[in-house]
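Why does residue order matter? Because the sequence determines the fold. Keep that principle in mind as you read this record.
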Amino acid sequence: MQIGQLASTGGVTTKTIRYYESIGLLDAPARTASGYRTYGPAAIERLDFIKQAQASGLALSEIKSILEIKDAGGQTCQHTTDLLRRHLDELDAKIIELQAARVALGAMFKRASALDPADCTDANRCQIITETAPSSSVAAGE
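Structure:
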């Protein structure tokens, strides 16, 4: 199949296919006498793997590292497990961060309903976001 057919089958653009080739995610294809790229079934399988790996949160560089191990005939299970564990840890940390942000935003929202907009006279701050006046050192520019 040609690049357009591969792109259509894989649900990506031809530009994506060319990019994946340029960074080594997809092997350089065979070419016809007239220079057209031709792909076999392995390209579809590899493209499908790349998309599934991306959907799991892996970066293209991480996907490439898995494929390089596979291409060399190695086993990738431990490497992939380590990558996924790191992503899970990062996601857990992000969830904690987002939960804290949610609490802070909830407090601001609650404060907003209790404030009178007529009392907001500070030219540099919104009373909803800041609940107290700036400290004297901040006010003095220190």
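Helices lie at 3-10, 14-22, 41-55, 60-71, 77-114, 136-139.
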